[in-house]
Amino acid sequence: MSDELEVARRAAAAMERADTAGRGVGVRLLDVGPGRARVALTVEERHVNGHGICHGGYLFFLADAAFAYACNSHGTSAVAAGADITFLRPVALGAELVAEAVERARAGRSGLYDVTIRDGDRAVAEFRGRSRQVPGLPSPA
Q1: What is the dihedral of CA 100, 103, 104, 109, to 10 degrees?
Q2: What is the CA radius of gyration of the chain?
Q3: Angle made by CA atoms 21, 10, 24, in degrees to the nearest 5
Q4: How far apart are the C-alpha atoms of 42 and 96, rounded to whole Å?
Q5: Were 109 and a residue from 8, 120, 133, 139 both cysteine, which residue would form a disulfide, CB within 3.0 to 4.6 Å?
Q6: Residues 6+ away with beta carbon under 8 Å from 28
Q7: What integer pLDDT is reported at residue 141 of this predicted model?
Q8: pLDDT truncated to tens, each residue of the chain (141 aa)?
Q9: What domains are there in the chain, each with its CATH number?
């Protein structure tokens, strides 16, 4: 195993232990590596809005979780500087969602990440996150 992969896994394990919000929502970490991460969520009754579909806030939450694991995978604490999401399709109760984050660029303390949320092979949302490394925060690794 490479040193970079080991750093990514240690950072993810530390974040996962401390992520009370993610556990409460039902987010599951599937995979992590340098500059990338995959997380999952099963859409339950608690995630459904008044239209009977998954609330967009939960889709944002899932994408943000993948983004967080990916931007912290280098072992230096990073937080969101901003993010945007585009909802492509409604998501039904019972859907098994997977969000995959991929690093697009890192320069200095800033990073750019794209996240695709899929229900099976169908993309249901696209998210772009901008990260900023923050000195002074506890290191995730």
Answers
A1: 140
A2: 15
A3: 15
A4: 5
A5: 133
A6: 39, 40, 41
A7: 63
A8: 689 999 999 999 999 999 999 999 999 999 999 999 999 999 999 999 999 999 999 999 999 999 999 999 999 999 999 999 999 999 999 999 999 999 999 999 999 999 999 999 999 999 999 999 997 776 676
A9: 3-133 (3.10.129.10)
| Whole-angstrom distance, CA of residue 31 vs CA of residue 9 | 9
Cα–Cα dist 62/137, whole Å: 23
| Per-residue tokens: 102 | 């991929």
What distance in Å separates the CA atoms of residue 128 and residue 125, rounded to the nearest whole number? 10
